[in-house]
Structures are given as structure tokens and as C-alpha cells.
Amino acid sequence: FSAIRASRHFSRHFSLSGFSRSNARRMAPLGFYGGFKIKSGETGSNMACAAAKGEEKGFMGTKYAVDSVDDVKFLPKLVVFDLDNTVWTPELYELYRMPEYGKDIKLFPAAKAALVELVKNPKWKGTKVAAASRTTCVDWAYKLMKKVEIVDGKTMADIFSFTEIYPTTKLKHFRALLKDSGIEYDDMIFFDDGRYNTDEIEELGVLCVYNPYGLTDGLWKYGVTEYARIKKKMSDSGKYKKTCLTLTPGMLKKHLKEEEKKKK
Prior knowledge:
6-stranded parallel beta sheet; globular; 41% helix
């Protein structure tokens, strides 16, 4: 390790997480990573991508998340994404030099699909996109966002209206997002691979979605539809209740089973 590399390694793995993904990767010889079977010798981004391939197919039989939402007024006004291991892989601290997109770092397919939907589908017209990342590789993250093209010549930098990218707590990120966007916490949805992050942000009233192995198609659609369901329920009842909730892969699995039972 160089001094910089060692510093990044220490700050990332001795954070609030307790048990880091590097420890999980040391278990690779056991043949499993996050519940998904992997090949011997797979590490880093290969393992994360292998896990992401377990994403749920054909969620509710829709192409876009908004296809399952009856009224656009129930969509979030701000969609907030973590970057490392949520939008792209591997995490920036794992790299020794400024990464080259497509070679050293890749977007999770579902993350790119979600960003394309946010840009292309007119139902998302009133929604803005933000990034909240604790990475220590701040300069790399901003440079990547300017280089990664999503659709129609638009880069991530073009799509993200707000960027809070610096090593701190996610609470500080969200306080800044609230101030800069003017959007209330209960009008936001947040996708992150760190449960310690979602646990603290859900207390603000933000609906959180925990994606431990990168954003998946199922978790993206589940998050959007659950947000709309909760908002509609509040609207119908005429009562506001602060939402302190983190959606998880386990909850999605249970939801899909219930949907299957309804079809039978």
C-alpha cells in the first residue's frame, strides 16, 4: 500500500459498517458472495456483478418502474443514489489510479436502466436526481460522472442536479440536499449498499432502499412502487405519518411471493 492507498483502505473499512465487504471477499473461497454462487478466484467487481445478476426479472411485468404507478403525483421529487457499489463497481477506493470507464469501472445494468428511465420517461419530468457518496476519491468520482454517458449524449454529470460527494456521514449529505433542493425528506427516496447509511437516513423520513450488491431492477421498481403506495395511502387517509423505513431484498422477495399468490 502507498500512504494514500492505505489511508483510503483504513477510512473505508474501519467506518460505521463494522463488517466490511473486504472481509466478505476474503470468504470467496467458500464459494458464495451475498448468497450468490461464484466461481473460484472471483473477486471485486466480478463478484459484485455476479451478485447483481440475481436481480429479479419481470417485476410486475413492467418495463419501467413508473408503469406501476397510477398517478405521477405520488412519485418522489428527488431520487438519491449512493455511487460506489450502488451505481458503479468496483468501489473507487479499490483502484490504484483514476479509473477508465468501461475498462476499470462499470455501471450496474439496473442502475443505468434507472437513469435512462429518469431521463426518457416523461412521467419523471418533475423529479430531480442526486448523488450522496462518502467516497474518499472525490476527484475521481466527479471526473467519472463527466465521462459516463447514459443516454442521448447526456452524462451522469448532466443528469444529477445535486452532488454531495465527500467523506462524512450521510446525514450531512442529506441536510445539504434538503437545503440546496428545497425538497422535503418525505419527498425523497434513497438507494444505498450500506445498511448503516440507510438506518440513519430513514430516521429523517426518507424512504430508503438497501441494495447490498448493487442496484437491481427489482429493487429499483420495488422502491418506486412502494414509495407511491405509501404516498397514496397517506393521501387517501388525509393523515401524514413520518416514514421510517428501509426496503430490503428480503422484503422484495416476500412481496414477489405475495404477488404470485394473487395471480393463482
